[in-house]
């Protein structure tokens, strides 16, 4: 089969489309999946650059995909060949045509959700679900600040937070992205290229600050995001698209109002099968009810993963990007 391989860390040029051995036949409790679509995420870039160390070199990037079960191993009872499934898996390896995985890490994809939507929604959607329901349980009356509000996770955070009754403030990098965020439920988009987002957030909250900041940008926004919080507010740092956050004195948290800070990982929250099922089930319900619209605004052939990663890294995308295997 063919797959993307990374032999050394670097820019997108290290992504190579190569012939590789077929995956092993599924063993006990395992399933062989033929991919139809692969989700593109910033974590793929983190592994490519070495910010997140892969298990070894060379490796195949990708942590999210949707496909069809081709074969099952012994003791697999809930899945059969032909079933449509999706997964989010902490070990990279999704940028390929076929993959063998533990059955307990797979979730069924309903027939009324197409492959592209499913590949775009699992990692980003479950991330939004755990951030809003478990990391900081958002409720009516809360005010939230979402950075990169027109991005893949940001657009879903805006939609779901609005559904949960929150007032949503979001930062974006252009007028077009402001309109995109507004369409996704963001009450107050802030173009950070035109306005100071701290001053704007303080003005919108009449000086009080927000209950929670959801920050996937990292270095460029982290410390100033703390200034957007009300006393006892929560800073949720869940990504670093602008670079790693520099070490800082935790005394700042006390000085800025006894703030809470957390760096969640989806994989911790869904490590147990029951938690994975619960998160995926609510996400699927949100999509079916129309609470979430999954904007797949860019698609590329899997072989063109380098071009797709460049567009994501350069912030030229909105919504989600999907790599197509067929």
Automatic annotation (TrEMBL):
Keywords on record: NADP, Oxidoreductase
Cited PROSITE patterns: QOR_ZETA_CRYSTAL (PS01162)
One Pfam family recorded for the sequence: ADH_N
Record has NADP as a keyword: yes
Enzyme Commission designation: 1.6.5.5
InterPro entries membership: ADH-like_C, ADH-like_N, ER, GroES-like_sf, NAD(P)-bd_dom_sf, QOR-like, Quin_OxRdtase/zeta-crystal_CS
Listed GO CC annotations: cytosol
GO molecular function: mRNA 3'-UTR AU-rich region binding; NADPH binding; quinone reductase (NADPH) activity; zinc ion binding
The organism's place on the tree of life at top rank: Bacteria
Domain Enoyl reductase (ER): from-to ranges: 10-323
Family, similarity comment: Belongs to the zinc-containing alcohol dehydrogenase family. Quinone oxidoreductase subfamily.
Protein name according to UniProt: NADPH:quinone reductase
Organism: Alkalilimnicola ehrlichii
Upper classification of the organism: Bacteria, Pseudomonadati, Pseudomonadota, Gammaproteobacteria, Chromatiales
């Amino acid at each position: 089969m063919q797959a993307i391989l990374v032999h050394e860390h670097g820019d997108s040029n290290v992504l190579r489309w190569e012939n590789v051995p077929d995956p092993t036949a599924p063993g006990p409790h395992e399933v062989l999946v033929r991919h139809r679509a692969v989700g593109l995420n910033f974590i793929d870039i983190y592994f490519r650059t070495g910010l997140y160390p892969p298990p070894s070199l060379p490796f195949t990037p990708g942590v999210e995909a949707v496909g069809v079960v081709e074969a099952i191993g012994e003791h697999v009872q809930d899945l059969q060949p032909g079933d449509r499934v999706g997964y989010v898996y902490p070990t990279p390896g999704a940028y390929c045509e076929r993959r063998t995985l533990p059955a307990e890490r797979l979730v069924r994809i309903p027939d009324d959700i197409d492959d592209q939507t499913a590949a775009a929604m699992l990692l980003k959607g479950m991330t939004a679900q755990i951030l809003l329901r478990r990391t900081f349980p958002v409720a009516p009356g809360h005010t939230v600040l979402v950075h990169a509000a027109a991005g893949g996770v940001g657009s879903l955070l805006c939609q779901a937070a609005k559904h949960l009754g929150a007032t949503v403030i979001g930062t974006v990098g252009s007028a077009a992205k402001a309109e995109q965020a507004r369409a996704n439920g963001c009450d107050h988009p802030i173009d950070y290229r035109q306005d100071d987002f701290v001053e704007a957030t303080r003005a919108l909250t009449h000086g009080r600050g927000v209950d929670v900041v959801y920050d996937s940008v990292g270095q460029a926004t982290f410390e100033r995001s703390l200034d957007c919080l009300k006393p006892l507010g929560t800073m949720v740092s869940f990504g670093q698209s602008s670079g790693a956050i520099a070490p800082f004195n935790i005394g700042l948290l006390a000085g800025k109002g006894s703030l809470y800070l957390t760096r969640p990982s989806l994989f911790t929250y869904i490590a147990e099968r029951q938690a994975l099922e619960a998160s995926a089930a609510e996400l699927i319900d949100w999509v079916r009810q129309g609470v979430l619209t999954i904007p797949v605004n860019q698609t590329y052939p899997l072989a063109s993963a380098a071009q797709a990663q460049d567009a994501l890294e350069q912030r030229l995308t909105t919504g989600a990007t999907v790599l197509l295997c067929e």
